[in-house]
Amino acid sequence: MWVRVLGSAAGGGFPQWNCACPPCRAVRDGSRPCHARTQSSIAVSPDDRRWFLFNASPDIHVQFESFPALHPSSGTDSGRAVPLQAVVLTDAELDHTLGLLLLREAGGIELHATEPVHDTLYDGTSLLRTLDAYCPVKWQRVVPQADVPLGNGLSYRAFDVPTTKRARFGTVEGKGQGRVVGYRLTDERSGRALVYLPGLQEFTDAVRDQLDDCACLLVDGTCWDDDELIRLGMASRTAREMGHLPIAGFGGSLEQLSPLPIERKFYTHINNTNPILLEDSAQRRTVERHGMEVAVDGLELRM
């Protein structure tokens, strides 16, 4: 399979438009080594010709333009034929779904989402109601633990990622199944698997089981510390309360992921306040010393 990291930042991107935290200042003035990032999304293909978009960020236009494989073909009558086959969602967060509205010029969109995610986008935010007024949306219901073929030996299996984050829209609360999912993508030709997990609040045994024998992991790296945003005066909730397991500290993702025998492990969905964005930071060195990598926009993987 072919994988392209279109965006590797959390909601708001890096730098965030209204933020003057140390990493945002550094990327603006060039005072420390770091790279700007758009909001998280990946594109996956079984053959380098047909592509599946995992999450549709508000930065979708610049992400598509930066990746020639997603450019429209000039060899058709309309000149608007694109190799995008479907959009696959991990959740109903705005930073993962607002890009759907920017696809409204499409003749139709195939959308893979769990029932709770679909219902939130249709009845809660009304995003899908709005989009459907411009182009037809064909909903493919995602059922956790069911294998879904994407063609040429590539398939995905969604798995539930428990969360207690308060839902801003809709009525689903608690650890209701399907609010957040991860995806295990498997290429039957190579026998290799990649797990995409941009939202992770708790590293449960069930989530851990999905990582068995995978060759690559793209995992939630939103915050370094649990109290990061509180300490900076930017929020009143911890990372965990916002649905994200911090990297550092007791029970953090670095402690739990670093021992796992996975060839390549990347942090993605990285908040603008996270010091691992600064390539010369002690936190970045700690991550790399533990065998983890930090994803960047434009990263390409061949599995």
Task: Walk me through the structure.
With 303 residues, the chain is an alpha/beta fold. It has helices at 22-29, 60-65, 94-97, 115-124, 127-132, 205-209, 228-231, 253-257, 282-289; strands at residues 2-7, 41-45, 51-54, 84-88, 109-113, 137-141, 147-151, 154-160, 181-187, 192-197, 216-220, 264-268, 293-294, 300-302. It has a single domain (2-73, 82-302), classed as Ribonuclease Z/Hydroxyacylglutathione hydrolase-like (Metallo-beta-lactamase, Chain A, 4-Layer Sandwich). It starts with a strand and ends with a strand. The model has no long low-confidence stretch (mean pLDDT 95).
Shape: globular
Order of helices and strands: EHEEHEHEHHEEEEEHEHHEHEE
Rg of Cα set: 18 Å
Mean pLDDT: 95
Give the number of helices: 9
How would you sum up this structure in a few lines?
This protein is α/β, with parallel strands linked by helices and 303 residues long. It has 9 helices and 14 strands. The protein has a single domain, classed as Ribonuclease Z/Hydroxyacylglutathione hydrolase-like (Metallo-beta-lactamase, Chain A).
Question: SSE layout and pairings?
Answer:
Blueprint: E1 2-7, H1 22-29, E2 41-45, E3 51-54, H2 60-65, E4 84-88, H3 94-97, E5 109-113, H4 115-124, H5 127-132, E6 137-141, E7 147-151, E8 154-160, E9 181-187, E10 192-197, H6 205-209, E11 216-220, H7 228-231, H8 253-257, E12 264-268, H9 282-289, E13 293-294, E14 300-302
Parallel strand pairs: 3-4, 4-5, 5-6, 10-11, 11-12, 12-13
Antiparallel strand pairs: 1-2, 1-14, 2-3, 7-8, 8-9, 9-10
